[in-house]
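Ligand-bound model needed. S-adenosylmethionine.
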Amino acid sequence: MFPAWNPAQPEITDLLVQYDPGTLQRLPVRKQQLLDVFARFGNHRASRAVTALPENAGVLDDREIDALLLTVHWEMQRLAEEFYHGHRVWELLRPVVTSIRQAGVRETLRIVDLGCGIGYTTRWLAAKISLTDHNIEVVGMDFNSTLIAEANRLASAEGLPCRFLHGDALSGEHSSHILVSTGVIHHFRGDALLDFLRRHERRETQAFLHFDFQPWFLAPLGSLFFHQLRMRTAIARHDGVLSAARAHHARTLTEAARASVPGFATGIYGSRIWGTPLPRVFHTLIGLRPDLVPGLRRELGRHVARLGELR
Ligand SMILES: C[S@@+](CC[C@H](N)C(=O)[O-])C[C@H]1O[C@@H](n2cnc3c(N)ncnc32)[C@H](O)[C@@H]1O
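Prediction:
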């Protein structure tokens, strides 16, 4: 295996920005600390990308790092557009919303896009779906205040009826009926994955949908091809391929969910192409309250074949 594809290591963007977990205040990040991490994995590609990062006396320059992260997220948005990600989310979200309605919930449903980055999914939903007709509200949340400021700027430039909040989407302060995320869950591994899922167990939460890359032996190669073609920053190219290598298998996700949140029926949606053994690029960890399962199956129509066992 190439050192840059070793799934045991973190992605560069996981380390670029660090926060105080209580206040979410930015903490100084020493470049040498990052170089030491990638030296341990013999990952020269990551080390070269980190060496080139702007710094002041060995500490990464926050403003420059924010500008770089914005560029990376603009590039990721282009991929999301090309992969029709908004359509993918709504295909599953719509029947989930309907099944919650059929169970008798009348209030406005709050859908929180956890780790929204610059908010592509949230803005797509606000632009393409009549939120009033469905009586839903869409909110994007992220730990990173720069990404949230950019998401708010884009939503206001586009005149979209959605909001973006800086904060922890799983904290007690923010409630959600449905949690969605894209490209987030593989960042949580081992005990951190169990803890992340455990924090979904809230009285008002009816469902969660975590969209992420599906691992496959050719996925890092496919990702390498797309990232070389479409991404310009060394960091996006590096992390894009590593995230395909770090993506969780369906079994890891379902076992973690069943151990952490037994109050939800959980399974995988959309893992195979048209009933063939060929894997889709994305799969979704879905969890919903058990009484909603029959309604979801009905509402999925012919797409019910894409739904794995929910338990
Ligand atoms: C790879 S980025 C996701 C990008 C974005 N979803 C997209 O598709 O462009 C992962 C993000 O998740 C955020 N994050 C992780 N856990 C979170 C939580 N509990 N609440 C809010 N943001 C979270 C991190 O701050 C990070 O920006």
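The mean pLDDT is 94.
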